């Protein structure tokens, strides 16, 4: 049947193809129709259910710690909104026949499927550049090294140039544009195979560079090996996004030359959505650290404290306070008290302002420990 469909598409005008499709639908009525539409919908919904809450938590964590949304957060929000649009389009396309063989798609919806796929290509580029730009903007804000920031600017510039060029090639892949979705119109198209491969290779190179860039800066931090390893692991999660980009590259083979696009492009679309989700998740995970540090504090605040309260009343009642205060002064135990954490109450943290006065908020926010001399063991 695939060979027959290819022959029909290559020899008959589109109006005749519609008549053949109608006749085939009548002849094959009642026979099971192969479909992967449910895979498209499930993948899109799952990626949205995992990714979008993480971006929301990212913004909540930023408000919790710095009371301000930064450029990297806005880029993540932009990317997530575009991803949500892509997910909605893919769910719609699965309802009208994307994921089925071309000869089993209702001709009424054929143009709509091609229009959705065209929009998907453009939105994919925007979401990808915004997600990677978000991570690079986060690196630029957190790491103060002048050389690192120059490198970050160069990577961001490359992302913008690559994204703009690739977006332009996809936007005007065929002229007139209507020939992309209206098979009655004969158009002249660029080499989509070369465009797809070049864009995918650039994306993989970008993923590798973004994954490796922060590691030298993290290794410079005065931390234990365990803490360094944990940080390097957290910032290296972008390697999974790189893997998804490589898997997606495999499915670009059928991107331009297929005669069965609703079926052959299913894997390409699904892995593209997975890639975008991984990029957004990897860009957001490092920013969730302050929120994760708040969870133990919140849990401890709601645990029963009757024992602690009675101990406090016993040790610090007026009858015992002078004796204990004198004892602490004699032993010098007050000198061993660690500095207050950066998220302490402003009125209390002010007593220890000398310890944090020269630290940038974003440096403290990154880990809360890296630049503190109290954790060099």
Automatic annotation (TrEMBL):
This is Rhodopsin domain-containing protein. It comes from the Eukaryota. Its main location: membrane. InterPro entries: Rhodopsin_dom_fungi, SAT4-like. Keywords: Membrane, Transmembrane, Transmembrane helix. The chain crosses the membrane at residues 40-61, 73-91, 111-130, 150-172, 192-216, 228-248, 268-288. Belongs to the SAT4 family. The keyword Transferase does not apply.
């Amino acid at each position: 049947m695939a060979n027959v469909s290819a022959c029909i598409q290559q020899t008959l005008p589109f109006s005749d193809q519609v008549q053949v499709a109608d006749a085939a639908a009548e002849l094959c009525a009642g026979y099971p129709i192969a479909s992967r539409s449910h895979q498209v919908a499930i993948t899109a919904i799952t990626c949205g259910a995992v990714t979008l809450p993480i971006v929301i938590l990212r913004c909540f964590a930023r408000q919790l710690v710095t009371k301000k949304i930064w450029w990297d957060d806005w880029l993540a929000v932009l990317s997530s909104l575009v991803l949500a649009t892509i997910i909605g389009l893919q769910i719609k396309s699965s309802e009208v026949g994307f994921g089925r063989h071309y000869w089993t798609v209702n001709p009424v919806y054929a143009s709509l499927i091609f229009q959705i796929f065209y929009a998907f290509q453009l939105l994919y580029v925007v979401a990808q550049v915004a997600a990677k730009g978000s991570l690079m903007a986060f690196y630029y804000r957190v790491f103060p090294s002048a050389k690192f920031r120059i490198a970050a600017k160069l990577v961001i510039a490359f992302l913008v140039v690559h994204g703009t060029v690739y977006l332009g090639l996809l936007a005007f892949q065929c002229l007139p544009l209507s020939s992309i979705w209206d098979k009655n119109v004969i158009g002249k198209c660029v080499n989509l195979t070369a465009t797809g491969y070049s864009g995918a290779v650039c994306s993989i190179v970008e993923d590798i560079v973004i994954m490796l860039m922060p590691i030298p800066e993290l290794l410079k931090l005065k931390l234990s090996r365990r803490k360094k390893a944990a940080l390097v692991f957290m910032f290296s999660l972008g390697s999974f996004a790189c893997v998804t980009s490589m898997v997606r590259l495999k499915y670009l083979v059928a991107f331009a030359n297929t005669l069965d696009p609703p079926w052959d492009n299913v894997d390409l679309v699904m892995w593209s959505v997975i890639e975008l989700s991984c990029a957004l998740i990897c860009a957001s995970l490092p920013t969730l650290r302050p929120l994760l540090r708040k969870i133990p504090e919140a849990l401890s605040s709601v645990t029963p404290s009757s024992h602690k309260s009675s101990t406090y009343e016993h040790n610090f009642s007026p009858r015992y306070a002078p004796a204990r205060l004198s004892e602490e002064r004699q032993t010098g135990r007050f000198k061993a008290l660690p500095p207050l954490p950066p998220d302490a109450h402003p009125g209390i943290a002010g007593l220890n302002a000398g310890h944090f006065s020269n630290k940038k908020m974003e440096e403290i926010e990154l880990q809360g420990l890296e630049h503190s001399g109290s954790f060099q063991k």
